[in-house]
Amino acid sequence: MKLTRRHTLLMAFGSAVAAILPFRAFAAVEDNITAFTGGAAVGTGGITLIAPEIAENGNTVPIEVSAPGAEAIIVFAAGNPTPDVATFNFGPLAAQQSASTRIRLAGTQDVIAIARMPDGSFVQASQEVKVTIGGCGG
């Protein structure tokens, strides 16, 4: 194959797009948080996020969230192509405002949980989860 100026420009454009795509994922997380909170300030405390520090398999990472009195909890995986992972809504008759599930992580990244409280405030907790390849710890 003969390398032409057109092919060189296409490769340069493709490289630029590939370099910018990861930054769009972080922008998507911020946009989703703003959509959930309506632009309100997000505080800390009142929510517990339990996730492993190191996950040997990114396909099934167990997490647990708890926010006593919360109306809803949303979970994001900041480094995933689709960052919104789960939304848990709790009615007035819910015995407890907690949930546990397994999520898929594309790599080492932050897991973020935000809870909407009955007074309209929002609280957040986050934790970095290191995803190893083949369980080798690196």
Give the topology.
Elements: H1 5-37, E1 42-44, E2 48-50, E3 54-55, E4 61-66, E5 72-77, E6 84-89, E7 98-103, E8 109-116, E9 122-131
Parallel strand pairs: 1-9, 3-9
Antiparallel strand pairs: 2-4, 4-7, 5-6, 5-8, 8-9
Which structural traits does this protein have?
alpha+beta; disordered C terminus; 138 residues; elongated; three-stranded antiparallel β-sheet; 1 helix
Report on the structure:
By secondary structure, the protein is α+β, with helices and mostly antiparallel strands. It contains one helix and nine strands, in the order H-E-E-E-E-E-E-E-E-E. The longest helix has 33 residues, at 5-37. The protein is 24% helix and 36% strand. It is elongated, with a radius of gyration of 19 Å. Mean pLDDT is 85; it is low at 134-138. Strand 8 (109-116) and strand 9 (122-131) form a beta hairpin. Strands 1, 3, 5, 6, 8 and 9 form a six-stranded mixed sheet that branches.
